[in-house]
Amino acid sequence: MSVGAFSIDQLMELAVYRLHPLSKGNKVLVACGPGNNGGDGLVAARHLWHYGYRPTIYYPKQSKNELYQRLATQLKNLEVPFTSDFHSALKDSNHVVDAIFGFSFSGEVREPFPSVIEAMKATSLPVTSVDAPSSWDIETGPPTSGPGEGFHPTALISLTAPKPLVAWFTGRHFLGGRFVSPQIAQRYDLGVPEYNGLDQVVELGSNGEKL
Description:
Layout: E1 2-3, E2 6-7, H1 8-13, E3 27-32, H2 36-50, E4 54-58, H3 66-77, E5 82-83, H4 86-90, E6 95-99, H5 113-122, E7 127-130, E8 155-159, E9 172-176, H6 182-187, E10 202-204
Parallel strand pairs: 3-4, 3-6, 4-5, 6-7, 7-8, 8-9
Antiparallel strand pairs: 1-2, 9-10
């Protein structure tokens, strides 16, 4: 997979999330799924560790893909803890990164993720979703029944470009797509906002305008 000659791991390296400041707490629980979205979460956790946060990884269905195995190994070499108990880890966290399901999600939510998504829905902690709130359909937005019904995270970070589901999203919305070339933007009719300084993310309003 590539976009404009950027490989998967290069795209994930751009996913440095604008989370709450360290003064609000440094314990971040990162929930990772088995696919690309989970890989984004692993990369985010590594960056957060280097920035002074203390991430904990929930990664119950670890991918056999070599790239994702290397990302997990990098975290283990930093002694970042992995947990098999999301609910207990949630009680000792200040923020949650939802990197379970993303752009390619379809069908039903399978174990062990239904209760995890319900816990993210119920928590009073801020939740930041990567590219799509887990369980949401890219085209039609939040589910009307089952796991994820009523799940509206605090923030969403769209990678490359906002997806159609943002029409239903009411939280803070960030875009990480500074690397998009003029040719790619023209081909797919992408509106690329202006980025400040060296920022890799920009906050967007409800109509897609830069804030």
